[in-house]
Amino acid sequence: MTGNQAVTYLDRLYGWRRRIFRYGIWNILYRFWIKLHVDGWENIPADGPVILVGNHISMLDPVIMISFHPDRDIVPMAKTEAWGQFFMRYFVRHWGAIPVNRGEADLSAFKNTLERINQGDIAMLYAEGTRSKTGMIEAQEGIAYLALKTNATIVPVAIWGTPEFPGVWFKEFRRVFTYIRFGRPFRFRWSERKLPRKHFRQMTDEAMYRIAELLPAQLRGVYSDLSQATTDFIEDTPDWRPVRSRLPARVIGVQGRIGAK
User: CA-based angle 36:170:221, to the nearest 5?
Assistant: First the structure.
């Protein structure tokens, strides 16, 4: 089997596995355990390189995110420790998640993510590098590198409510309310060939403030003071087409039932 044949085979294998996962999440997790509220679905571009960047408060967050299918698969980066946990190992292996070593510049993870983006998938990053239930913590700078290398559009994503699962369900026998907001897409502004490494910190913080403004105030953490947000390296993306796929009718938006434009 040649290299291209192997890639095609893996893509097909992951393709049907992901469809099964999504079916199970929508028809079991959301039907019995979680009531999902989504806002801003129309902010996801239908084509071109896209990176979703979100806050991270629960191990359930990536499960929620990969359940969406904005006309293509969402592939998350996951800490290598997940491959050592029984349930998570099954999930990340069969989904085809990208392993990343936390606390270091993992070039292999960056390369794999670049390949997935260039092949048309949407990458899902949690720039904080770990979970924080009490509020956002300072993010790592890899997001700026990936976005500039791929010229990707970044969609900020805010999620909250997931830490209540499964405790609320077992204690009160009711579904958990989980909220997701997709913010306005943007790109990093940079025209020179050389990557602006000395500006990666500011670029990353500017992106994180875009997430913070979507969250309830008590979850913004180190990005609580929105007056400190700058936009020196951010430009809103004017020329993008929203996804065609619609969310199921059971999904509730902030202003009622929503779907894509």
Answer: 55
* Upstream peptide bond of 163 is cis (omega within 30 degrees of 0): no
Neighbours of 100 (CB within 10 A): 23
pLDDT at 95 over 70: yes
Identify the helix (H) or strand (E) that includes residue 124: strand 122-125
Contacts (Cβ under 8 Å, ≥6 apart) of 246: 259, 260
pLDDT for position 5? 45
Q: Which residue has the higher pLDDT, 7 or 111?
A: 111
Split into its structural domains, the chain has a count of: 1
Domain boundaries, position 151: 3-257
Least confident piece of the model among 20-24, 85-89, 141-145: 85-89
Q: At 183, which CATH number?
A: 3.40.1130
Average of per-residue pLDDT across 222-230 = 96
Both tokens assigned to 126: 């949690």
Cα–Cα nearest to 182, from 131, 234, 258: 258
Output the CA–CA distances (angstroms, integers) from residue 147 to 37, 141, 142, 196, in the order listed: 28, 11, 9, 12
